[in-house]
Amino acid sequence: MKILVTGGAGFIGSNLVDALVALGHQVFVIDDLSTGKQEYVNSRAKFKQLDIRDEALANVVSDFSPEIIYHLAAQKNVRTSLADPRLDASINVLGALNLLKAALNSKVKKFIFVSSGGIYGDSKILPTPESAPEQALSPYILNKLTFEKYLSILSEDKLAWTALRLANIYGPRQDPQGEAGVIAIFLDQALKGETLNINGDGKQTRDYLYVDDAVQALIKALGDISGVYNIGTGIETALLDLIAKIKKISGQDLQIKNREAVWGEVRRSSLDASLAKTKLAWQPNYDLATGLALTYKWFRDKK
Prior knowledge:
Blueprint: E1 2-6, H1 11-22, E2 26-31, E3 46-49, H2 57-64, E4 68-71, H3 78-83, H4 85-105, E5 110-116, H5 139-155, E6 160-166, E7 168-170, H6 182-192, E8 196-199, E9 205-206, E10 208-210, H7 211-220, E11 227-231, E12 237-238, H8 239-250, E13 256-259, H9 274-279, H10 288-302
Parallel strand pairs: 1-2, 1-4, 2-3, 4-5, 5-6, 6-11, 7-10, 8-13
Antiparallel strand pairs: 9-12
Helix pairs in contact: 1-7, 2-4, 4-5, 6-8, 6-10, 8-10
C-alpha cells in the first residue's frame, strides 16, 4: 500500500516507517525536522521536509495519493503548550485539520491518528478504559482530544479512521533533550554520571510501553477497525521504582535530587488496553525490564 507518515523522522514515527517498509509498503514521510532527524528516515522511504500547516501540503498529498495516512507530527512539549497555547493549537489542531482536509480531498481510505493516554488526566479508574471521563490538564492534551472529535465529526462515511491513545512510550531514538520521556532523560543522565532529578516525591506512576509494541499497535490499526483505542500495558510503575530498575541495568549507584512537583502533573496513570486486545488482536510483548535493557544498550552504543 501507499502510506504517508507525518512526523516520520521522529522517535515513534521513524520506528513505524522502518516497520512499514519492512512489510513492503511504499512509504512517504513528511516532517518539518523541528525535532525529527532526517538520518532516522528509512532510505527506502520517500521524504519531504514540510510543515503540516503549509498550504503546499494539499498538493503533496494529492501527488502521492496515499491509501493510508498516519498522523504523528505534533507540537509535543506540554510546557510550550502552556506558555504558548496559540502555537500549540496552530500545529496540533489547525495543522492536523489541514492534513485531514487534504486526506478527504485525495480520497484517502483511512486516517490513523496518534493520540495520548493523557486525555484521562487523574482518572479515578485504574487501569483506565476508553469509557472513562476525559480530563485535559494542558492545551497539548486538550488539542489531542479536540482533533479526535474533529476526526469523528468530519470523517462520517467519507473516511475510515482510528485514534490510538498511547501510554508513555520509550525506546531507541527517543531524544533525551527538551520535553522528552523520562526514561530517555534518565538513561542519558545515567550514562553521563549525572544526578537524576525527580519532580516531587517520585511516587507518581506511569504506564511505560516499549516503542516496538506501540509500532505493532499502529500496524494492527491498518485493519478494518475504527474508533478510539488505548495502547498500554495496564501496569503502573512509580518513578522511584523505575530508577531502581535503571540502577540495576546500568550497574551504577545513581544520585537523586528531588525538585518541586510540577503543577498539573498527573499523579497516577495506566491504561486498560482490553479493547485493543479484543478488536486489534494486540498486546504488549516487552516487559519493562527487557525494554529498558534494550533502550539502555542503544543509548550506550550511541555514545
